[in-house]
Amino acid sequence: MTAGGWLACRGQATVEVVAMAPLAVAGALGIAQVLAAGAAAALADHAAEAGAVALVQGRDARAAVRAAVPAWTRRGLEIDVAGSRVRVRMRPPSLVPGAGAALAATAEARAR
Fold first, then answer.
1. In 10 A of CB 11, how many CB atoms?
2. Confidence (pLDDT) at 75
3. Could you give the maximum distance between any two Cα atoms of the chain, in Å?
4. Strand locations in 53-104, DSSP E?
5. Do residues 43 and 13 touch, judged by C-beta distance below 8 A?
6. Is 83 left (phi over 0), alpha (psi -120 to 50) or beta?
7. Is the Cα dihedral 66, 68, 109, 97 positive or negative?
């Protein structure tokens, strides 16, 4: 192989890496979105349980739900208290508009 041919191969590899970079970034963002949806499900479940415990103890269930989740999740938080039932819906943060609403998690707990 001549020196010119070897240099041409090096340029080809650079072009391939640059072409694959957007796909790698898109894949990483997709994985991050799935992880955020899983975290939202776990946090919603925990918050619903905290709200039900607050009802049993005679405290404000909505305040207990808000206190049970990190501050950064409160923007996507919906709380519904009806009788002994506490329902929490949480939208995970997302970079793609509408993805958070599509991946929202709902959890319900009852005070007994």
1. 9
2. 87
3. 83
4. 77-82, 85-90
5. no
6. left
7. positive
HSE, side-chain direction, 13 A CA sphere, residue 1: 8
Encode pLDDT of 52-103 as tens digits: 999 999 999 999 999 999 998 888 899 999 999 999 999 998 877 788 888 9
Q: Is residue 4 pLDDT above 90, yes or no? A: no
Q: Which residues pair with 112 in a beta bridge?
A: none
Q: Are 52 and 107 in contact (CB under 8 A)?
A: no
Distance of CA 94 to the CA centre of its chain: 7
**Integer CA distances (angstroms), 20 to 8, 16, 86, in order:** 19, 6, 46
Give the tokens for residue 73.
């999740």
DSSP conformational letter for 98: T
